[in-house]
Amino acid sequence: MYTTSRYASEETRRTARAIALSNNERYAARGKKTIARLAEEARRLGEGTVSIIEERAGKAAVIAMIAVDERGGWRWSGEKPFNPSGKDISREAEGIQ
């Protein structure tokens, strides 16, 4: 599941939706959702991770990863600079530990 940081620009939200679509993943509109609520939503949908596209100066800059367990617990599992090179971003995200 992909989402953005809170108060993300339209460009960052558009980028997150495009990444989710290209990787055949879900996109969750962040709004006022807390990390715990996003993790619970991911767990209900059978997702094991939440990828949060964070921005710097109005542009996607970092992918933060959250691991979600079967009971709805979650933990930060790393972050990596966003690489808009056109490479499959899910492969990059999988390398975060």
Secondary-structure blueprint:
Blueprint: E1 2-4, H1 10-22, H2 35-44, E2 49-56, E3 59-68, E4 74-81, H3 89-94
Parallel strand pairs: 1-2
Antiparallel strand pairs: 2-3, 3-4
Task: Give your account of this protein's structure.
With 97 residues, the protein is an alpha+beta fold. Helices cover 30% and strands 30% of the residues. The chain has a 4-stranded mixed sheet with strand order 1-2-3-4. The model is unreliable at 88-97 (pLDDT under 50).
Described by the principal axes of the CA atoms, the overall outline is globular
Radius of gyration: 12 Å
CATH architecture: 3-Layer(aba) Sandwich
* Total number of distinct structural domains: 1
Q: What are the key terms here?
A:
single chain; 97 residues; alpha+beta; Rossmann fold; four-stranded mixed sheet; 3 helices; 4 strands; 30% strand; globular
Quick overview of this protein structure:
By secondary structure, this protein is an alpha+beta fold. The chain is 30% helix and 30% strand. The radius of gyration is 12 Å and the shape is globular.
